[in-house]
Amino acid sequence: MRFVKPLEKNQQAANLSFGGELFKYGSSTIPMPFLTASYGYGFDSTLTGFASLNISSGLYKNLQLGFGATKQLFTQKKYSPGLSVSPAFEFIYQNQNAVKFYPQLAINAFWEYGKHKNLVFLGVDNWFELASKKAYEIKQENHWIFMPAIGHGFCGKKGMFTIEARVIAPNLSNEKLVVEYKTPFGTHGAFGVYIGYTRKF
Amino acid sequence: MKKIFPFLLVIATLTGCLDLDDNLYNPSKIDAYRLDEYKGDVDFHLDLSYHIPDSLVHIFTLASQANDESAATTIYAIYVGSISRIATDTVILYCHGNKDHMDAYWPRAQLLANTKSKNRFGVMMIDFRGYGMSDGEPSEKGLYADADAAMKWLKSQGLTDNRLVIYGYSMGTAPATKLAAETYSMKPSKLILEAPFASAETMVQDGSGLALPGDFFTTLSINNGEEIKSVQQPFFWIHGEADDFLNIETHGQVVFSNYTGSYSEAHRIPGADHTSIQTTMGFQSYMDVVGDFITLH
User: Fold this and answer.
1) pLDDT in tens, B182-237
2) pLDDT at position A177, please?
3) Which residues share a beta bridge with A168?
4) In Å, how far is B274's CA from the nearest CA of chain A?
5) Which of A156, B66, B115, B294 has its CA 20 to 30 Å from the CA of residue A30?
6) Within chain A, how many helices (H) and strands (E) appear?
7) pLDDT of residue B150
């Protein structure tokens, strides 16, 4: 889960988020249990740097780290949303033969409202697959995985509880796969749900 | 933050505990084999014309032991046919899929036992360790050891390599391909793969849309797409074009395309999914193509 709105200058934050694509597991539908811990630091009020550790990936003996920054491009003016962009990358390491690097770019529009400055955001996250081949030297056709997202942050004095829904790769068929994704959008893409808690200090 | 650190410590302690290997197996335990009387889920039912007389159905146990195992595991097997004729018959060793047990695959074994004519071929089927009444837990190593235990028994009954055909369905395509490609107790003379998978890595890549290494999620070394390159025996591939579990293009076609042996034939079945090749083709058509491959090539 990204820092949609940058932190204040010199402010720090820790985040835990959980969730993933909904899929059929036995007779139930559950989200993929991705658990990620993140840390953010406000370099100034429009630029936050962040790093993340994918804990679920660690349970599979992978080191999965993410690094990036959130830059606010426009501030909110009444109903006109604030806009931020978050370039980042994920690095995943298992062994010498299993290393991946994924550039990412998230763009989010957000609105703060109310006394507690609750946050509504709407955006799109993008992952880029750099590999030209996959198993058996077969051409990797998909190089751009995009994920429209909508979310809401409930703010307290020191923290924010966030819920988010994502549509993952709605341009790709989800048929004829070992994984049976459950999505309201039928035969394409996957639908992910996420919850997170950010503590500011 | 102070509360987060202990939590992360627990997670870190657990790091390295998980993989998706066990998801390959979906066994069920039972206390007796019921075969014709089995009331659980099967992919199709056969009428009485396919019935095999009880005198030609033999259920027994085998001791299965991989080279690096200190003790044998008892697994169950069924031989369909006259055991006294194994020394002269052609025998199909059937390696079943990843779910349930031999009762669920009994109609499939019956079809093979009716191929060409009733009991024209002997058919042997095993429950891999952890399946049905077999002891132990499923494992990749166990798949190979258990199928090899069946070959050892067939060899002890007088079967020779030139009369052994190995048939794998879905998960069973892994031991079938492995035992056809490498040196085990016997060298099957022909390989039949129904709905094979290429590798765990292909499953990961299909599911994610990304070129992720399989190592991120599994320690399974099963790789039919590579193993098939070492198979020189005649090869028969059959796969449903509507297979919604193991995609015909990313799995089956890869295995078929990588075969470089002496003879191969492909049967892509329009409209058939992972479990319905026989019903989509019609039982007789299915038996005809399988039987022709065994007898003519």
Assistant:
1) 999 999 999 999 999 999 899 888 888 888 888 888 888 899 999 999 999 999 99
2) 81
3) A190
4) 10
5) A156
6) 1, 11
7) 98
Q: Which two tokens stand for residue A169?
A: 């790769």
How many angstroms separate the Cα of B78 from the Cα of each of A200, B83, B105, B240? Answer: 65, 11, 11, 27
Mutate to test the interface with A, among B15, B98, B99 (most CBs of A within 10 A): B15
At residue B297, the pLDDT reads 87
Question: Do A59 and B207 make contact, defined as CB atoms within 8 angstroms?
Answer: no
Q: Please say if the pLDDT value at position B9 is more than 50.
A: no
H helix or E strand, kind and range, residue B26: strand B26-27
What does the pLDDT look like over B121-135, one tens digit per residue?
A: 999 999 999 999 999
Closest CA to B234 of B260, B216, B199, B196: B260
Residue A145 distance to chain B (closest CA, Å): 8
User: In DSSP terms, which residues pair with A128 in a beta bridge?
Assistant: A144
CA separation (Å) from A17 to A128, A162, A196, B64? 22, 9, 4, 46
**Residue B4 to residue A37, Cβ atoms within 8 A:** yes
On chain A, the residues whose CB falls within 8 A of the CB of B12 are 58
B10 touches chain A (CB under 8 A): no
| Element spanning B195, H or E | none
Contacts of A98 in chain B (CB under 8 A): 213, 215-216
Whole-angstrom Cα distance, residue A7 to residue A155? Answer: 13
Q: Which residues from A are below 8 Å from B when comparing CB atoms? A: 14, 16, 35, 37, 55, 57-62, 92, 94-95, 97-100, 102, 127, 129, 131, 133-136, 138, 140, 142, 145, 169, 172, 175-179, 199, 201
Helix (H) or strand (E) holding B142: helix B140-156
Mean pLDDT on A141-166? 92
Residue B19: the pLDDT is 64
What pLDDT is attached to residue B6?
A: 40
- pLDDT of amino acid B8: 39
Our measurement of the distance from residue A184's CA atom to the centroid of its chain's CA atoms, rounded to an integer in Å, reads 20
Are A93 and A66 spatial neighbours (Cβ–Cβ below 8 Å)?
Answer: no
Matching residue, tokens 């950010």: A198
Tell which residue, B254, B218, B255, has the closest CA to residue B235.
B255
Chain B residue numbers with beta carbons less than 8 Å from the beta carbon of A15 are none
**A47 Cα to chain B: minimum distance (Å):** 22
C-beta atoms of A59 and B203 within 8 A:
no
3-state class (DSSP) for residue B11: helix
Is this prediction's ipTM beyond 0.90? no
Which residues, in sequence order, are bridge partners of residue A74? Answer: A83
Residue B205: name the closest of B215, B220, B219, B194 by CA.
B215
- What is the mean pLDDT of the segment spanning B83-94? 97
